[in-house]
Write a structure and sequence with these properties.
single chain; alpha+beta; GMP Synthetase, Chain A, domain 3; three-stranded mixed sheet; 3 strands; 27% strand; globular
Length: 62
């Protein structure tokens, strides 16, 4: 697991199955039942991770 994957796992508080980099976006694949946790209330978890990493983050289920 690379550094960004580990940081995402800790910030989003979910299991990260895969991470893809697409331009200035990071696509994070998580288990279906953990998508709501990863996004957070009103998108708060994703927004916080975006601020820390300086890139847009998209969460998708696998």
């Amino acid at each position: 697991m690379n550094d960004i994957t580990e940081r995402l796992r800790k910030m989003l508080n979910v299991e990260v199955l895969e991470v893809e980099y697409e331009g200035d976006r990071i696509i994070v694949y998580v288990p279906q039942d953990q998508v709501r946790i990863a996004v957070g209330t009103g998108g708060a978890a994703v927004k916080a991770a975006e601020l820390v990493l300086g890139r847009k983050i998209e969460v998708k289920a696998r």
